[in-house]
Design goal:
mainly beta; Tachylectin-2, Chain A; 2 domains; globular; binds (Z)-L-Arabinonhydroximo-1,4-lactone; hydrolase; Glycosyl_Hydrlase_43; Xylosidase/arabinosidase; ConA-like_dom_sf; hydrolase activity, hydrolyzing O-glycosyl compounds
Length: 525
Amino acid sequence: MISAANPILPGCYPDPSICRVGDEYYLVASTFEYLPGLPVLRSRDLVRWETVGHAIDRAGMLDFDGIRSSGGLYAPTIRHDGERFWIVCTLVDPSDDARGGNFLITATDAAGPWSDPIWLDADGIDPSVAFDESGRVWMHGTRLARNPAWHHQTEVWVREYSPDERALVGPEHVIWRGAVNGVVWAEGPHLYPIDGRWYLIAAEGGTEFHHAVSVARADQVTGPYEGNRANPVFTHRHLGRGAGVIGAGHADLIQAPDGSWQAVMLAMRASDGHHYPLGRETFLCPVEWEDGWPVFAPGRGRLPETVDVPWADAASPPDAWQPDDRRPGAVPPDDPRWTSLRVQPTQIATVESDDEGVQAWRLPVRAESPADAGTVAFLGVRQQHADLDATGILDVSDLAVGETAGLVVRQSEDDHATVRVTRSAEGLMLSAVHRRAGGEHVIAQRTLAPADTVRLAVRSRGYEYHLLGEGTVLATIDARELDASATGGFLGIWLGVFATSHGSEPRGHVRISRFHYEPSDSQVP
Ligand code: 6LW
């Protein structure tokens, strides 16, 4: 038997959804404005995951143009109908309700290709899908309540979906508004047919400190649903700020081939009880059934720090499987961790080989900067460890005068920190800049001797980001000013490379000769 660390997916993997096909599990999570979107991960033991593809991996599948941070792809659900995988998800543009909405994509292979989206005539977010024994398909999701008495509250709806008509059909049923009186944000619903009944798992309380899991059951998929008297059946909110892990909720259930049950859900590691730069991460939680109800973390009532995996030996992954977060060192261009903003990485960058045959990204400069919600010259990876060194060796010999390239610690357009070089007629200017709530603060600046290559680094230690240029710490940024509890939004930190001409006609490019992501020993904030 092995014991594995919880979270099972560290870093920004919120709103996890899981399904099983034979002895393989598949998981998806939200990715907001980052592309490729919706990573599809596979595991045989629920704790060692490999990214096999991304569901939104082609230019033009969805329109992300201008979508600001924390808009984009929310809370997907993955299911398998016996023949095909289904993902239902929402594209959200908070500034334009007319764009996006709920959609369905399907694939025979989870690695792709995924179909183009079929748009669903349903507003709101957090769609999910369930198949009944007769093969009927039941879509469900969350939206703002139509009843004015429930102003600012949400309700869970269910409606049949016709695969032939590629549309929702029949009447809509509102089945749930949350378990607790005065509840906010009943959301993230998932319906399951289990032992002749229908079970609803839903989040409530909002995806922060008061997040919780409630459960209800009914004889028919359309209800009426009876809430469990123990609701919310799982939460960390009563543990207080000292719990270390906060905000547990948004669960999805899965049954193993041996009949045992687990749930995946999101939660945040916040050592000070408030701040979580790594974002909302995916945790595993044991589930047992008692008296016809699921009990989460039985006998314990909180997410375990390590999960025992008695079934791991029998389910050893093939040798080639290498969990993304345990793959330290160089991040080559074909690594599935690379993401860009609002466009696919290959739409803004190309891969080149150097003289020794080592592949590297060539990133043309763009007029936009990381402060813009447009197409930014950005390539980055999730921060998955509190303590790590991210190092970029950047060939800046083709930067034009006035152009800037560097590393960014990114929360959003308005909140990020950069360590960067700007080419001037005299040489290179090295600077550290903190953009905070939309205001830009130059923290340190010095000239560098002319050079073709610069070495820039972000050293994260607990709640501090040290920004280094050529091995020297230029500035230290407090991570508590960059995390979502300080800035708003739904995201964890991304670390990456950017290049901008500050609005002028771009001329140059930067070559990411090396990008290293090295976790250091302590990995828990
Ligand atoms: C997700 C929803 C939520 O769709 O956050 O506040 C959204 N709740 O369940 C983004 O993760």
